[in-house]
Structures are given as structure tokens and as C-alpha cells.
Amino acid sequence: xxxxxxxxxxxxxxxxxxxxxxxxxxxxxxxxxxxxxxxxxxxxxxxxxxxxxxxxxxxxxxxxxxxxxxxxxxxxxxxxxxxxxxxxxxxxxxxxxxxxxxxxxxxxxxxxxxxxxxxxxxxxxxxxxxxxxxxxxxxxxxxxxxxxxxxxxxxxxxxxxxxxxxxxxxxxxxxxxxxxxxxxxxxxxxxxxxxxxxxxxxxxxxxxxxxxxxxxxxxxxxxxxxxxxxxxxxxxxxxxxxxxxxxxxxxxxxxxxxxxxxxxxxxxxxxxxxxxxxxxxxxxxxxxxxxxxxxxxxxxxxxxxxxxxxxxxxxxxxxxxxxxxxxxxxxx
Length: 332
Known about the structure:
Blueprint: E1 3-8, H1 13-24, E2 29-36, E3 44-47, E4 50-53, E5 55-56, E6 67-70, H2 74-86, E7 90-93, H3 109-112, E8 122-124, H4 128-143, E9 146-155, H5 162-176, E10 195-196, H6 208-221, E11 227-234, E12 241-249, H7 255-263, E13 268-270, H8 282-285, E14 291-298, E15 307-314, H9 318-331
Parallel strand pairs: 1-2, 1-6, 2-5, 6-7, 7-8, 9-11, 13-14
Antiparallel strand pairs: 3-4, 9-12, 10-11, 12-15, 14-15
Helix pairs in contact: 1-9, 4-6, 4-9
């Protein structure tokens, strides 16, 4: 049955990807509202051959809306999501505002689609890095419980939004021209540089991005006992996050067993050619739906063949954000 949709934050990178994916997947909608901040109100967007005018996001924006896809930032989600629910809409929120709320399902459809039925009007989309890690990890965890994870992320500019992507291009031009580097959206120079994720550092020395991966994985897997440590890093790549993941299992696991499980897993593609030294790269995953996995090997530092190492790449704007939300909307 066709739904009346609203997209909050439609002019941003994820908002634009919502439109691309809704069109690609032929999502059945009766109407669609394009919502954004007052700065973007009045802009024109052409979608499936029809021109729409962007409206200002207000608490009165959701009359008659069945599903509202939010990607307008955590503060706007907190301000407007309850109004959408009060108007009768189901909110699929891409921000961190509600992820750890015990009354809000945190959903990756390939893993815990059944949690959608527990919603009270809001369903949370996990952090992009969490999604990209969890899609290949869960089928392994189902077969052999994971005891510990050591994750290092290599996160693209896209994780900081459209303005960060444009700023990285500007920075590259400035560096090559020998000019001072502009840092407005990005805290530090990202072009030709790498820096630790600049989210707030907590008293334990971990930043917020790292702790999101820990807490969200525990919630999605319904398994708070997995020991997880993360280091999140921003790299000068336009879009697609990569991650190095070291897994310690309860029981032995061979690379061939891991490869067989991953080959059958939904949302996973394997690029793992040792002879050609060919493994997932951002250019493989960009614009594609699946999470790409390679470097599948025994972790020789874990005794008893209980360790496996993976390298993964996933498009942060698609599966890490917009696609995951649209998949939830399809299940609704």
C-alpha cells in the first residue's frame, strides 16, 4: 500500500540519497514532502520527473504523513520527531538522538528486523560505522559467538556531511596551490592527512564515535557481554568507510568457514583475492548497497584458531545511512 512520506533534511547528502534509493527501489508512495531548514525553504527539487518545493521543517509539517525519514541532525530530531509521531507518522531517524533509548528499536534489517514491531513511533538507524561492521559480523556471531572485537575505522569525509566532502576538495586545491587550508566544516586539514575522529573525548579516553560502535553493537546483537574496543579515524576519501576488524570467537573458526558464512550472508559481497592482492576498496563500495569483505585470515595472535581478521568497506551514505533507513521503511 502506498504511503505518504516526508524527508526531513532533504537537501543534505543523506537526504539526497534517500531520494535516489526511493527511486531505485520503486518505493510505493502516494505523496512526499521535502523538508529542510529555513535556509533551504523555497528551493526546488526534481524527483521522478516532478518538481517539488522544499518546505521549512516545523512541528506542523507532518499532517497526513505515514513515514518520516529524518536526517537533519540530532538536535532537530529531538525537536521535531515527537511532533511527527503525534501527527500519526512513524519516524525512521538517522541521528544519534534516540539510538540508546531503551524504548526505541535500533535496527539493521539484515540482523534484527523483528525489532521494528516494538516501536512506539520512532525507529533508530545505527551509526554508519556500526552498520558497516555489524552486517558481516552478525552471521559469524550467529554461527560462533563473538567474545571480543578490536575495530579500527577509516572514515570518509561523507561521514561529516556534504559540506565536509566539498571542503576536502577545496582543501586539496589549496594544498596543491600552496595556499592556506580552509577548515570550516572539518576541524583539521583532511586533504593529504589523517586524523583521529574529532568527536568529544570521554573520561575513559574514547571518543563518542568509538563508544557509539560499542554500545550500539551490544544493543543490535542483544549481547552486552561482547568485549569491544575501537579506534575511529578520518581519512581523505570522499565516501565509503573502511574498517579493520579483529574477531575473537568462543570456539575455533577457520578462514574457509568464515568465508562460507559471509558468502551466504545478506548484504555482503566478498573481494578476497590473495594471489592478486586484491581486496575491498572505497571505489568498490561507493554507490553500491552491500558491505564488501576481504583479508579473511586467521588471527595468529589468538590461541586455538579462535581468531579471524577482516577488512570491510561500505558506502557510508548508502548502507551506512539512507539505504538502511529505506529498508526499514519498506518493512513498515
